[in-house]
Fold this sequence. Notes:
About 65% of the residues lie in helices and about 0% in strands. By secondary structure, it is mainly α.
Amino acid sequence: xxxxxxxxxxxxxxxxxxxxxxxxxxxxxxxxxxxxxxxxxxxxxxxxxxxxxxxxxxxxxxxxxxxxxxxxxxxxxxxxxxxxxxxxxxxxxxxxxxxxxxxxxxxxxxxxxxxxxxxxxxxxxxxxxxxxxxxxxxxxxxxxxxxxxxxxxxxxxxxxxxxxxxxxxxxxxxxxxxxxxxxxxxxxxxxxxxxxxxxxxxxx
Length: 204
């Protein structure tokens, strides 16, 4: 039976496990990260891991949820929801999200390895993710629904519009195939503009 931990020990070890999880999941991925690796820096036995998290997937989810508030503020509150122009809002959202994927290794890992998020969702209650007020995907869906109803977006299903936006966000996965790296910012700018223009009904 795992030893009992004081509240102070539990807080300290939880922090160490979160740090190890962030480092290992972003470099090795969920499946290739072992319990031995996760508990090594915390100095606890493998069996003691379960006093803190039910599974590796639970730890992965906690790391995701820990960042959702900051991510939402960056890509939704300070980008998508600034101003009333839908086309400009989509431009800002795509640029902000691409910046987030570049600078945030955990979210980049989720974007480039969606099977890991699917593994988390299969093992844990997906409501835990979708019900959080800080979920950027929920906020984006609400925005698309609202602007579609207002006639400001293409007459396509919400899932289709979000799928098109996600296609743009997959571009960093293939950056090495885009030719001269010096041209990448210009390529991204033009792609974002084409998609934002194509999805909106306002004509300039």
